Amino acid sequence: MNLEHIQSIITRFSSERGWEKHHSPKNLVMALSGEVGELNEIFQWLSEDESQNLPDEVREHTQEEIADIAVYLIRLCMKLDIDLEAAIVDKMAKNEAKYPIDRVKGMDKKRLFLAKRE
Q1: What does R_g of the chain's alpha carbons equal in angstroms?
Q2: Contacting residues for 28 by C-beta, under 8 A, at least 6 apart
Q3: What are phi and psi of 44, to 5 degrees?
Q4: Contact 113, 102 (CB under 8 A)
Q5: In this model, does residue 113 exceed pLDDT 80?
């Protein structure tokens, strides 16, 4: 993924439409939340098997909602001057320290919660 290229597309799109004034962090978070809700709706009543085997038209809709989420998330990072790639790398390093393989491999949520408290 070329994040700089995507950022330039997002910036151009917003600027050409005069939407910059609407892209405050607060508004972007609210829009992001709405898009996550739309993604939730796709999966809400599906079984595990159905959620892993989406029909083509549902898969296409899912792809569009994921793209909307990514656009708002990237735009929010741009507004807050957050390097998304660095933030992900840093967070994954923290996750590795918080959840060492030898302590959590194969654990379910309840056992993971109890292991964190030890």
Answers
A1: 18
A2: 72, 75, 76, 79
A3: -50, -45
A4: no
A5: no
